[in-house]
Amino acid sequence: MRWILTILFFVLFEGYAFQAVRTLTQQKSIWMVYGFLVLVIFGNMLYQSLTFDRTTGMQVGMMYGIGFFISLFVFQLVLILFLLFEDIVRIPITIYNFFTKTQSDLGYLPGRRKLLSQIALGLAAVPLVSLLYGMYRGRYNYKVLHYALEYDDLPEAFDGFTMTQISDIHSGSFDNAEKVQYGVDLINEQKSDVIFFTGDLVNNKCDEVLPWVTTFSQLKATHGVYSVLGNHDYGDYADWENDAAKGENMERLYATQKKMGWDLLRNEARWIEKDGQKIAVVGVENWGKGGFKKAGDLNQALSGVAPEDFKILLSHDPSHWEAEVLPHPAPVQLTLSGHTHGMQFGIEIPGWFKWSPVQWRYKQWAGIYGTEQQRLNVNRGFGFLAYPGRVGMWPEITVITLKRTKATV
Tens digit of pLDDT for each residue in 180-217? Predict the structure, then answer.
């Protein structure tokens, strides 16, 4: 029944969207090309859905199916909104004509306005082209964002200390080794003192990252590379033969990160020392709201850290910040998160305007938040998932410079 209702909905949806195309041209060859493209995109999406194998997780073919489906759907949705607006006027006129016996070439129903259909197609083309561009170029359009954060309690030796944060690699989605290598080279070019990765190395399974081990092993910093787990790293979104197979996958993921030279923090802390002073790098396992895994234990991670120590917390999901980090009696000066991807779609004018549909789900979803003494940075992610592209919310490499607040006389 669910499939029947879904198919019925899309038949009506497609028929309604086609009205704009038919109004613009009477050339049946154009109608046939349009219909063929619609059938191919919807047919492929149906095939990918019916053949989806949860034991392997989402593959590149499925993501491209989703990408083209979303692009077409948004294009047609804009058309339909315009047609509905026109029908709000046409339907009352039709009723009036029926009772007054006034008829046109179409009977009592007035014809559609060609100009309105032209406007609708022109506006609908904007998100269509944007989404296709996001698939073709946007997904590897890496951007380096720089922030300088001042703290009163930052140890003097760390004044000017730099860190690079990346997040949400989703290695199972990559299909261009040259572009990924470019991103890794760009990270290393920042020459930061330390590199932090805030979770979601894979989509579902450790196997996905194996072709990229050599690439990500190239990440180097004076004080090392530290990482935490994200919700996708636990294998919860794939089917497993048994719990033992799932557990073995996790052990392989731990070993792979170690092989890459990354220090994986699982509810624990490390110390970075410089000129006899130190700061704490604290890492928790995933803690998220809304049904996401809550394996993070902030108390355990902070067990060897004094309240007055300067702390940098790696926590994949930004919802953890307001839920547990801010209320904690041991203040955490800087929390680094990811998870949202900025929904891989949005509009942003740096320093002035920022919007994405993901803000309806997450209060903190991209960039810097908080007060002078307790801040959160939400990284927009290095990779992509499901929709194989990015529009407006480009893949991000964050560079943060810590500054000690200068004393005023």
Answer: 999 999 999 999 999 999 999 999 999 999 999 999 99
Token output for 111: 């014809």
Q: What average pLDDT does the structure give for the chain? A: 91
| DSSP letters for 172-233 | GG---HHHHHHHHHHHHHT--SEEEE-S---SS-GGGGGGGHHHHTT---TT-EEE---GGG
**Long-range pairs of 303-306 with CB within 8 A, sequence gap ≥ 24:** 304/269, 305/269, 305/280, 305/330, 306/330
Burial of 141 from C-beta contacts in 10 A (0-12 / 13-18 / 19+): middle
Could you list the beta-strand ranges (E) of 244-295.
262-264, 268-274, 277-283
- 20 pLDDT tier (thresholds 50, 70, 90): confident
Ordered by where they begin, the domains of the chain are: 2-136 (no CATH), 138-404 (3.60.21.10)
At 75-108, the pLDDT tens digits run 999 888 887 777 776 667 667 666 676 766 556 5
Going from the C-alpha of 399 to that of each of 101, 111, 140, 144, 377, the distances in angstroms are 71, 57, 18, 7, 11
Q: What are the residues facing 353 on neighbouring strands? A: 349
Across the range 37-57, mean pLDDT stands at: 84
10 Å CB burial of residue 353 (0-12, 13-18, 19+) is: exposed
Per-residue pLDDT, 19: 76
- Residue 231 neighbours by CB distance under 10 Å: 20
Amino acid making up residue 395: P
